[in-house]
């Protein structure tokens, strides 16, 4: 979850949204065709913040996604693979727990 910092045209990213998740982490979503949030708005996981598009410097419809960390030089994109893997593991564990709980009730 986080707070929308920017929801507007952002140069080569086209229509873009940045969300601050804490004081040192931000995500960016770019090349959207439509933005559905506004600056200052709080968003939750799973909320639709915009629609895929091909705005800005884009060769076709897609979503540009970045995880950024705040450094002395400003926001810097980082490899999100560790965070994405942790999120997938958490999702898997919740699905497995719910499946096992429901399976026991059906027996």
Automatic annotation (TrEMBL):
Pfam families given in the database record: Peptidase_M23 (PF01551)
Matches recorded under SUPFAM superfamilies: Duplicated hybrid motif (SSF51261)
Protein name: M23 family metallopeptidase
Taxonomic placement: Bacteria, Bacillati, Cyanobacteriota, Cyanophyceae, Nostocales
PANTHER family noted in UniProt: L-ALA--D-GLU ENDOPEPTIDASE, PEPTIDASE-RELATED
InterPro entries cross-referenced by the UniProt entry: Cell_wall_metabolism_enzyme, Dup_hybrid_motif, M23ase_b-sheet_dom
Keyword Secreted: no
Keyword set includes Magnesium: no
Keyword list, A-Z: Signal
């Amino acid at each position: 979850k986080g707070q929308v910092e920017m929801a507007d045209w952002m140069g080569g990213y086209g229509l873009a949204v940045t969300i601050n998740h804490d004081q040192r982490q931000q995500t960016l979503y770019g090349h959207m065709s439509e933005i559905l949030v506004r600056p200052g708005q709080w968003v939750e996981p799973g909320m639709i913040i915009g629609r895929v598009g091909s705005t800005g410097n884009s060769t076709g419809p897609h979503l540009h996604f970045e995880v950024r960390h705040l450094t002395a030089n400003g926001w810097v994109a980082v490899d999100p693979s560790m965070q994405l893997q942790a999120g997938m593991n958490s999702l898997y564990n919740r699905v497995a727990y719910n499946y096992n709980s429901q399976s026991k009730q059906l027996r």
